Amino acid sequence: MLLFSVIASAVAPGIALLTFFYLKDKYDAEPIHMVLRIFLLGLLIVIPVMIIQRGLTLGLGDSPFVQSFFISAGVEELLKWIVLYYIIYNHVEFDEPYDGIVYAVTVSLGFATVENVMYAWYSHASIGTMFIRALLPVSGHALFGVIMGYYFGRARFSKGVRTKRFLVYSLLIPLLFHGTYDLILTTVTDYWLLLMIPLMTILWYGGMGKVTRANSRSPFRFLKREEEVNT
Predict the structure, then answer these.
(1) Looking at the domain assignment, is residue 228 inside a domain?
(2) 8-state DSSP, 31
(3) DSSP state, 124?
(4) What total of structural domains would you count in the chain?
(5) Torsion of the alpha carbons at 43, 46, 47 and 48, rounded to the nearest 10
(6) CA atoms of 43 and 109, how far apart (whole Å)
């Protein structure tokens, strides 16, 4: 019974955060079947992530910087980016900037949920530990997804060199935040919360700002206002 509670506590944060960001779509909510599809892909990329990370660790060593920015953040964010670019970027359902956030958060939380369940299963973590993981790594993945998805949305609805620049941002910026997050956890043993709390505050504040800006660029916002006026 306790194990079931711990596993449930590993799954619940991802579902709750996905629901939160999904409901932030003000104008044109994404089809549930598409969200589930991308969530499933997020679950599945855990396998290649583990294989690639193992190979890179054997080849590159285990220095904290390399582990944080290249092996951990680099591999995870790159595979999420690949899923979004090749599955969603040119999809007909990607029809407003906020959709980038929805799908990037979805693939990120699919990955984070499996990661969380594996941690709970193999470490026999307590409910308290899983609560801390909900506040840090799971929400961290969601916020890295917000950043990635925001710039995917900017790229999708831009032209020329701006498109390429935003696509680079969509990979590079979440990777840098993710790497910084991991580096703090692997190198700071005492008072690490003094660094982690400001980082998570920046991620949440910046992430919610990106949610607002992405919604404000929706082509459907004028239709919504017309419907409100007519009713």
Answers:
(1) no
(2) P
(3) T
(4) 1
(5) 120
(6) 8
CB 212 within 8 A of CB 101: no
Contacts from 118-126 at CB under 8 Å and sequence distance 24+? 118/46, 119/10, 120/6, 120/7, 120/9, 120/10, 121/7, 124/3, 124/6, 125/6, 126/6
Residue 95's CB is within 10 A of a number of other CB atoms, namely 15
81-90 mean pLDDT = 95
Number of Cβ atoms within 10 Å of the Cβ of 139:
22
Per-residue pLDDT tens for 30-39? 999 999 999 9
Structural domain boundaries enclosing 102:
2-221
Angle at alpha carbon of residue 6, lines to 33 and 121, rounded to 5°: 85
Angle in degrees, 0-180, between the axes of helices 46-60 and 98-123, rounded to the nearest 10: 70
pTM of this structure: 0.91
Look at residue 10 in the predicted model and tell me its pLDDT: 78
The answer to the question of residue 227 being in a domain is no
What count of residues does the chain have?
231
Residue 126 has pLDDT above 80, yes or no: no
Is residue 226 situated within a structural domain?
Answer: no
**For residue 96, what are its two tokens?**
């407003």
